[in-house]
Amino acid sequence: MRFTNTLGQSQENELLLNPQADSLAVYGPEQSAVLNDNAFANAKATITAWPGYAQTPLVPLANLAAQIGVASLHFKDEGSRFGLGSFKALGGAYAVSQLLRREVARIKGIEIPATSEIIDGTHADVIADITVCCATDGNHGRSVAWGAQTFGCKCVIFIHATVSQARKQAIESFGAKVVRTAGNYDDSVRAAQETATREGWFVVSDTSYPGYTDVPKDVMQGYEIMAAEACDQLGAAPTHIFLQTGVGGMAAAVAAHVKRRYGAERPKIVLADPDKSACWVETIRAGAPTAVHGDLDTLMAGLACGEISLIAWDILRESADAVMSVADDDAVAMMRLLADPSTGDPLIVAGESAVAGLAALIAATGHDAARKALGLDADSRVLVFGTEGDTDAELYLQLIGRSGDDVRRRA
Q1: Spatial contact of 300 and 331, defined as CB atoms under 8 Å apart
Q2: Which residues are tagged catalytic?
Q3: What is the pTM of this model?
Q4: Residue 323 φ then ψ, to 5°
Q5: What whole-number distance in Å separates Cα of residue 60 and Cα of residue 26?
Q6: 85 within 8 A of 389, measured Cβ to Cβ
Q7: First-residue to last-residue Cα distance in the chain
Q8: pLDDT digit string (tens) for 232-283?
């Protein structure tokens, strides 16, 4: 269905229910090959031992919940994660550490070393000669660059034409070389892979494609920690989770975790897709991975992807109950709402790619047919993930009219 919401500049949303969704479906071998309890336990043990690890806050938005007619609404605020400003710190850096452990073992002919040996320089003689690379809209590249700097390898990051100068400089601050390519995000993914193949580098991508799935699994496994934290922090289990989608790795990680945790009682999963790069809308419509083309020029830069991750589809094919499109103006409206002290809820600094899930929720609750289709009512307990803070501080100031630091001082 299509409907006009009252957010932003009264934009149109499209809501599609996923006919393949099945809450009773078993979390089987295909899904376990992507994300599973053993791999999660390893990721959790590794990442929680890193210096600076702390759970990010789960913020209750009680006043907003009352306004939209649900029992509760919680916002998992990832803006403080490892000082990098986004949940991506959990994925890219973890994947770098896993890759380096495997390479050290291969090159030296030894058992896979402990992560502590990667951090303390025991294998610096090997690691210093390894180069990792990836394509990014900003946050994933920052995480990979931070991981490379932390663990002592070289790093090259590919960004596409519309990635801001501020995001480029943030990546360079961690010692990475940044290469700007022509075209959109998907073009930069291909450029990274082609260069890595030619130079003997290692791609650490947050998206998967034919022949490339192992490293993205590590990235997604890191993301799952965010979902576990949120579920641990909640009292009662959520009934609904709204998740913004780029390639789908984050959404799949959350969906996989709650499926394994809650089984047939899992929450309803609703994907929120930028309308200018709506690859998940088209995928759900077609019932199979479907690319969208063009410049993908959405303000939600971290979600500007035209091709889904294939292993994310392995998870979301049955666990995503619906998908909604979200306009740029609606994302800005949510950023402003979270930074507005008049709401009575805690103030939150959320970047433009952090709020599509919240925008989809509020749009749906304001439309009777959408509300009914998603089963949203006065008993609903909703969870959303604020996946970044003001990772582009200049853009945040431009959109909100005050800086993220100013908002945080008022909180």
Answers
A1: yes
A2: 88, 137
A3: 0.94
A4: -140, 145
A5: 32
A6: yes
A7: 38
A8: 999 899 999 999 999 999 999 999 999 999 999 999 999 999 999 999 999 9
